[in-house]
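Re: beginner question about structure tokens

> Can someone show what the tokenized structure looks like for a real chain? I only ever see the sequence side.

Sure, here's an example I had lying around. Input first:
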Amino acid sequence: MSTIKVAAVQAAPGFMDINKAVAKTIDLIDQAGQQGIQLLAFPETWLPGYPWYVWLGTPADTIHYSAKYANNSIEANSHHEKAISEAVKRNNVQVIMGVSERDNGTLYMAQWHFAADGTLLSRRRKLKPTHVERAIFGEGDGSDIIVNDTDLGKIGALCCWEHLQPLSKYAMFSKHEQIHVAAWPAYSVYADRTYALSPGLSIAANQIYAAEGQCFVISSCAIISEEIHELLCNTDEKKALVKIGGGYSQIFGPDGGPLADYLPEDKEGLVIAEIDLDKILFCKAAADPVGHYSRPDVFRLLFNDKPAPVVMPFNDFSPTPVQSEQDTTGQEENTND
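And the corresponding structure tokens:
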């Protein structure tokens, strides 16, 4: 395959309304299919939208959102997932969907990778929710560092500030990722208060990921609409902390360069580019961080990629037998011999 047509969604979610959110998702997948998109990326927790409210008040002030947000978060194998899967299959497009995944009593910031036939290739969870996100979401584990080998190439995904975690990035690079989906909420909260949360830094994080890993990065970014802003901001103080817009979706090449025009930050649409995986080879010739540009004699990553369930069946647990004093004595005697 010479070129691949990819796209990043830039849109406001159907905020805390799972039925509205899924309907909008299906519409965007249909739009992608009509334009011949082969891989479509959605923002972080697109379903049912990022919980921006957690940044705008005390726990006592925002706790009233909790039940509604949880009830509108998507569950695996639900009828909502089935509807999305059918849209994916109908349009023959791979989709990486950012979701708030509800698993009984806990929510996770997840990314679900649908194959073009509508089947699930993987479900990953954000390894460590960022800052106040931990008041809402649980954590993933090492098995959530995933790169899928597909007919479009080796495709992986991370959320938001996972792109500022050097070891997580290196683990992804070690899987020889070719196309990376970077899922972000709107770059709108505290953007004028700290550069770390500004569009400039967030865009740069995507570019650096592309250049460090010599891979294509599809960065999908949500929008805060007037409707969402009005819902969130009932005081002047909150209005000063978050602004309308914040959409900066883009696609970056393996040298870190942007491949498409930016949409206005408050405009919805698909950011589209055609990518050629052979361009990765030019960049790898100069710097491959897990190949010829590495120094494993100096630095190595210790990576536990096993699932970490809270309960294991007894038969899956094999403790090391405790040796008797006689056995130990016998070993010492053999050693002396």
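Each token stands for a local structural state, so reading them left to right follows the chain. The radius of gyration is 22 Å.
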